[in-house]
Amino acid sequence: MPDFMDEALELAARGRGQTSPNPTVGAIIVRDNEIVGRGVHTWAGVDHAEILALKEAGDAARSGTLYVTLEPCVHQGRTAPCTSAILSAGIARVVAPVEDPNPAVRGQGFAELRRHGIVVEIDDKFAAEAARLNEPFIHFMTAGRPLVTVKSALTLDGKIAAPQDNVGWITSATARADVQRVRHFSDAILTGIGTVLEDDCLLTDRSGLPRSRPLLRIVLDSQLRIPIESKMVASVERDVVIVGTSAASPARRRALEHAGVEVLIADGTGGRTAIDQVIAYLAERRYLSLMVEAGSKVNWAMLESGIADKILFYYAPKILGGLESLPVAGGKGRMRRADALLFDRVTLHPIPPNEFAVEAYLVRN
Question: Which positions are annotated as active-site residues?
Fold first, then answer.
């Protein structure tokens, strides 16, 4: 007998990058062991996966089973409650792996269905996979801020840059393509002004896949030094935010704003930008995830402050050695081994033939 939740999860995965600030959801309707309706949520404000599956199934949905990757919504948002449509369609049974963490739903959707006689089953076997698909959404709904991932490409000895010539790439084209995939799943990307001045980077999503909202590009630049002729400013389409301080030149701010860049003033300590204000800015606008692709100092600031939630490090089979090559995390660092930052839930992702990525989560005190 087929496991229909597998297919529902596959459907949900097709919507990744196309649903923010909403969750990624897949739905399948089964009657007499045959799939009669399928749906996957994409753009915010468009029908949810359950509604699409019900529309495809039509009258065949009556007395059927709905397999859905997240608890159906019970509140009126941009669309009508999915629970109302499920009840009207005559669905007899609903199977889902996880509750919706949104406080407006969180168990209430299941309760509403049960009150009207629908059998609700929680399929724990798929809970981890379903949660993984919606990791940014779940994190945002529980923590109230975006999921922050520090991504870097580094050598086996933990170096991200040589002291003199940094022409070329550390990792392979295969690894870099995977980075584009991860960028596609992110709502925003952040770097420091040092990286922009060194690389004149674009920081765009080059996956070629459709998105629900543009990838927001953010640069920490306390003195607003980013050149007007830089690739990032030249390519702005209401998707670039430069974070400066009140000490920056008003003329520079006016020039950037005239070029179409949003300037956010976030004064921190020591003349630096305040990263926590950047996170608050993103949370207010419901950006679910932030990917950090920066240099050594910004990486350490993100990790040491606890703003970062996880790391995604791509390792190449190379060693730079020496004391002058930049490590992945610079700054002051920790003075004692006992004070090292700790990580758990470590996952190794092979990248054939000779590379790999390490994904891990920062342990909170």
Answer: 50
| Residue indicated by tokens 């168990």 | 107
Q: Closest Cα partner for 355 from 182, 157, 175?
A: 175
Q: How confident is the model at residue 167, as a pLDDT?
A: 83
Amino acid code (one letter) for 78: R
Peptide bond into 21 cis (omega under 30): yes
179 phi/psi in degrees, rounded to 5: -60, -40
Instruction: Return d(Cα 78, Cα 278) in angstroms, integer.
Output: 27
Given the structure tokens 């969180």, which residue do they identify? Answer: 106
CA dihedral for 155, 160, 162, 168, sign (positive or negative)? positive
pLDDT digits (tens, 9 = 90+) for 193-206: 999 999 999 999 99
Q: Give the Cα separation of 141 and 48 in Å (integer).
A: 18
Strand partners, 150: 292, 311
Q: Which of 248, 258, 276, 259 is nearest to 190 (CA)?
A: 276
The rounded distance, in Å, linking the Cα atoms of 114 and 98 is 16
| 296-332: b (≥16 Cβ within 10 Å) or e | bbbbbbbbeeebbbbbbbbbbeeebeeeebbbbbeee
What's the CA gap between 241 and 258, in Å, rounded?
A: 13
R_g of the chain computed on alpha carbons: 23
What are the tokens at 281?
Answer: 């800015």
Q: Which of 315, 292, 312, 293 is nearest to 171 (CA)?
A: 315
Work out the pLDDT band at 176, boundaries 50, 70, 90. very high
The answer, as to whether pTM is greater than 0.70, is yes
Q: Which two tokens stand for residue 247?
A: 């000490």
CA angle 187, 232, 197 (to 5 degrees): 115
Mean pLDDT of the residues in the chain? 94
Closest CA to 290 of 269, 300, 276, 304: 276
